[in-house]
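Our consortium's second objective concerns turning raw sequence data into structural hypotheses that experimental partners can test. To show how far this objective has progressed, the report includes one record in full. It was chosen at random from the queue rather than selected for favorable results. The single chain below, 200 residues long, was entered without modification.
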Amino acid sequence: MGILERKLPTTVLINGVEYPIRSNFRTMIKFEQLMQDPEVTDQDKVWLALRLFYPDIPEDTDKAVDQLLWFYRCDKRDNIYTKKTKKRRSKRTDRIYDFQCDDDYIYAAFMSQYRLDLHTVKYLHWWKFRAMFNAIDEDTLFHKIMEYRAVELDKVPKEKRAYYKRMKQLYALPLSQSEEDRQNALEQALLNGQSLEGLV
């Protein structure tokens, strides 16, 4: 059942026990930022995420993680606003938004389209927020920025390529240290005429 057919969950059921959860959109924004933080180990991410989501962490942590991810995805298989691209033999997913970097664009989009002040609203269920986020109008600056980031330049007509390249650079999300190191290694290899094997 979808968002229109039932009461939105504020608890999850694990081994027959109902556990309260923090269902506000701000909690899930913090969760997403935590998952993208390269300075936090994977093991620490799990425990920090559980502490963030559950007022009382269930004993069965595997199922607790499964329920957290189910809630984050809004009971859908894929609800992450990203652009999937294929490079050589490997698949990579390029982020086209970041809640921290794009907070002002997101705020403005919600104010403009929904007349909703995300700064002052006390509670908004994550599933409602996500539905509204995914339906942000294409006329908003934020939607255009996501399009710039997602566009594949080799598929853009030649006469528009320079413009989209400038826009991609202007609105590029900052790279993590590991991404920056990888990009620097790629650029250095290209400059030195070295093989790119293992770098892409």
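The partners drew two points from this record. Residues 11-72 form one domain. The longest helix spans residues 177-192. Both points have been shared with the crystallography group to help prioritize constructs.
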